[in-house]
Amino acid sequence: MTDAAVNPLKAGLEDVVVSPSEICFIDGHKGRLIYRGYDVDDLVAHSTFEEVTFLLWQGRLPTRKELDAHLKALASTANRRLPPKLLSMLKMFPRKTTPMEVLRTGVSALSAFDPDAADNSREATLRKSLRLTAQLPTLVAAWERIRHGKPPVAPNPRLNLAGNFLYMMSGRKPSPLATKTFDIALILHADHEFNASTFAARVTAATLSDVHSAVVSGIGALKGPLHGGANEQVMRMVEQIKDPARADAWIRKALADKARIMGFGHRVYRVEDPRAKHLKRLALELGQQIHDTSKVEILDTVVRVVSAEKHIFPNVDLYSGAAYWAMGIPTDQFTPIFAMSRIAGWTAHVLEQHGNNRLIRPRSDYTGQLDLKYVPLSER
Fold first, then answer.
1. pLDDT for 269-287, tens place per residue?
2. Which of 21, 223, 316, 347 is the most buried (most CB within 10 A)?
3. Quick check: helix, strand or coil at residue 27?
4. How far apart are CA 150 and CA 142, in angstroms?
């Protein structure tokens, strides 16, 4: 039941346009992803994640001088390190605490230490966005070490965000291929228009709340298995299949049993997700480097069968886990890595929302009763 002036119900807000945006465009029929006018294929070929963050926040590519200053700020120990009291707090968490729970709590705690916490001006929000982008890899890597009884590894200002994260996870300098692969993965996940977590962040920002609160909202939405956990489920499927020789029969049985196969289909794309091809290529190259391409071989068989039987296409989640696995990253860290990348998009959307704000307040389609008469407690 709705007011006459209210538009018809659109379950899940599917295809509902709620706001103009200059940040990201998805052409679902042609399979194109555009950041601020630039095709993601071109950014993967020529740019870096650091430069993409500047592009998303500022709406243009930086000059050499601007990029050098931006790189210096993102690499500085002052921006990358965690407050000592926050590290002490992490050490008090039960070891069974999931990485996403730690990330959600850690980002909220970071706001208490941020010198611009109460300032919602564009300049302050840009500074906070940069610090969060620099701090999230440190937070994720620190918990990975702490939960296994190892001391956190301090950030290395000589490494880019991708290389520094891999270094802080293992304590070893990563290979150039691993660093490049991870950098590209960060670019590919940096933004994706009004997905669930970005919309959650914008709803929070629209109340004129601060960027840390908006990011926590995004993390909370990303934590759900229908949004951020799909590549984890893909890797669990691959681990069940184990052997490429078993993949064809395994996936056909799963389809016959009506099991949901993660890593396929998308609410917007009607063709293959443009990000998938890059992650497939990189997962294969990493597999060749470590002399184990079995994960990619399994996934290739899954693609062949599912595409033929269901006529749906791979999305970004199908091959990303295989690439992360080849870099030695635990499966339950895949979604925090998603957040490490999407922080660029979330914060860009907060900046855009604050710049031309209107409170987001949709309506519901009421399906309850009307005109009930109150019955005194003694008569119930």
1. 888 899 999 999 999 999 9
2. 347
3. strand
4. 9
Please count the other Cβ atoms lying within 10 Å of the Cβ belonging to residue 134: 24
Distance in angstroms (rounded) separating the CA atoms of residues 44 and 274: 11
Element (H, E) at 33: strand 32-35
Residues 6+ apart with CB under 8 A from 245: none
Q: Which residues of 204-240 are buried (b: 16+ CB within 10 A; e: fewer)?
A: bbbeebbbbbbbbbbbebbbeeebbbbbbbbbebbee
The letter for the amino acid at 374 is: Y
In the chain, helix, strand, coil percent, each to 5? Answer: 60, 5, 40
Query: Whose CA is closest to 182, among 151, 159, 199?
Result: 159
Q: Catalytic site residues?
A: 227, 266, 317
Half-sphere exposure of 122 (CA within 13 A, CB side): 11
Instruction: Decide if pLDDT at 6 tops 70.
Output: no
Query: Which pLDDT tens digit goes with each residue over 290-344?
Result: 999 999 999 999 999 999 999 999 999 999 999 999 999 999 999 999 999 999 9
What is the pTM assigned to this prediction?
Answer: 0.94
pLDDT in tens, 169-206: 999 999 999 999 999 999 999 999 999 999 999 999 99
Alpha-carbon distance of 280 to 286, in angstroms, equals 10
Place of tokens 């993660």: 262
Helix (H, G, I), strand (E, B) or coil at 256: helix
Sequence-ordered list of residues with C-beta below 8 angstroms from that of 171, at least 6 positions apart, any chain: 153
